[in-house]
Design a protein that fits this description.
Length: 442
């Protein structure tokens, strides 16, 4: 029996809606070719004319002749990248965050995938060590670009030691094949003290830099360690002094790459600056913010947007009190921003810095806070407004990591929730309750 891609959404006013395609319909083939996954779907629907075969919820088969103008979207989304499920990860990385998670969280967080199709469509990082040759050839054939790749270490021995997979040592040849094919690569290095820092890091950055312009960005992020590490290798976080030293080396690399390529090329996550107690760089360092979702440059971009929107703020607003929730690492950053709001009459902001009890105090980023920890820290706010950064919630639902909803937290706090996008102007509008003129800076 042929399995197809299931339609998850149909856009209003689209060709798909006009053709009466509905959520739950299965797309079986296009121009007579069975659909293996979302890559086939995107490739085969790129034409302006094609025949789509789908199965309705009641089992009826529909054959639809699609014609569209150049650039016009079909207007539908599918539930998964493949009817056969995701490509699972066979690595056993010593720093794997999934292995450090307690029970009771969102079910999807325990999925340990390493799927190149998610890398292309959602920007998820893959290691390449779980690809077979047919899949690799498929990447080259369809020129699937850009890809987001977890590198960690160029040195084969160091990478195998980190990932506990003998195939992890094939990375250098794989990256060179991708570069020769013109595939754009956004790479990340999860840095672990004593494993891939020091000389290993220098070699990794150097070799990745040699693959520019195929390699468009190199993000360096510190290892994330929770308190749930029973039977896992004994790892530690970087000290502030070590983080400072890494950033100092990084600035040298950035200057050299800007001279050679016109880009900083290597970027460090906001966590490194917070750990070192250093101010965040100017936005120019981050070029096109290629790894914003990886926590690289978020603070600098947010501050720039905040300062830009602040110019539109009146000297006084109607009486308003809000509660601001943040993690430990971002607390000094928001303290500086809130100082700029002190002159605004009528505005009261109470900042709550939440220590992460769920994962442990070494996890300090706001995006890994849970509703339970927030509720336990704040208590009853008696009907007042509290701000929830969007980064704390699942992308398509208002659910925290611990599977508690925004509604649950509102009941616990007896407050009014306001979910805020991670943008400076959106934050300022949420705090003040005003619609401010202008747009966020890019």
């Amino acid at each position: 029996m042929v399995q197809g891609l299931v339609v998850a959404a149909v856009h209003a006013g689209s060709i798909a809606e006009e053709m009466e395609i509905e959520c739950g319909d299965q797309i079986l083939s296009i121009d007579g070719q069975e659909i293996e996954d979302i890559i086939d779907f995107q490739y085969l629907t790129a034409e302006d004319e094609f025949t789509l075969l789908l199965e309705k919820a009641g089992g009826e088969l529909w054959e639809l002749e699609i014609e569209r103008s150049y650039g016009e979207e079909l207007g539908l989304e599918v539930q998964a990248v493949s009817p056969h499920g995701l490509k699972l990860c066979r690595n056993n990385c010593i720093f794997c965050f999934v292995a450090q998670m307690p029970q009771g969280m969102r079910a999807s967080l325990y999925d340990k995938d390493d799927d190149y199709r998610l890398s292309l469509t959602q920007g998820s990082f893959i290691t390449l060590s779980n690809l077979d040759e047919d899949e690799f050839e498929r990447i080259l054939k369809f020129h699937l670009s850009p890809l987001y790749i977890s590198v960690h270490a160029w040195d084969a021995e160091a990478r195998v030691r980190l990932m506990k997979n003998p195939r992890a040592g094939d990375l250098s040849s794989q990256l060179k094949r991708l570069a020769e094919a013109g595939i754009q690569i956004h790479s990340q290095i999860v840095l672990v003290p004593g494993y891939n820092d020091g000389g290993v890091l220098e070699q990794t950055v150097h070799e990745l830099g040699n693959l520019h312009p195929s390699v468009q960005s190199i993000a360096v992020v510190p290892v994330g360690l929770t308190k749930h590490r029973a039977n896992l290798p004994d790892l530690r976080p970087f000290t502030p002094e070590e983080a400072w030293g890494i950033l100092a080396k990084g600035e040298v690399w950035q200057k050299e790459y800007r001279r050679k390529t016109g880009r900083s090329l290597v970027y460090f996550s906001d966590e490194f600056y917070a750990s070192a107690g250093r101010d965040y760089p100017s936005i120019e360092i981050y070029d096109d913010f290629a790894q914003l979702e990886n926590g690289v440059g978020m603070a600098s971009k947010f501050r720039q947007e905040f300062d830009h929107a602040l110019q539109s703020l009146p000297p006084a607003i109607p009486q308003r009190k809000v509660h601001l929730i943040t993690g430990v690492s971002a607390a000094p950053f928001f303290e500086d921003l809130l100082k700029k709001l002190k002159p605004i009459e009528g505005l009261t902001i109470e900042r709550h810095t939440i220590i992460n009890s769920f994962f442990g105090p070494t996890v300090t980023v706001a995006g890994l806070l849970t509703a339970q920890d927030i509720a336990g820290h704040i208590g009853n706010i008696k009907g007042e407004i509290f701000l929830i950064p969007r980064v704390m919630l699942k992308a398509d639902e208002e659910v925290f990591l611990d599977d508690r909803s925004v509604e649950w937290l509102a009941e616990e706090l007896q407050g009014i929730p306001l979910v805020v996008e991670n943008q400076g102007r959106a934050f300022l509008e949420a705090v003040t309750g005003l619609d401010l003129e202008g747009e966020d800076c890019e």
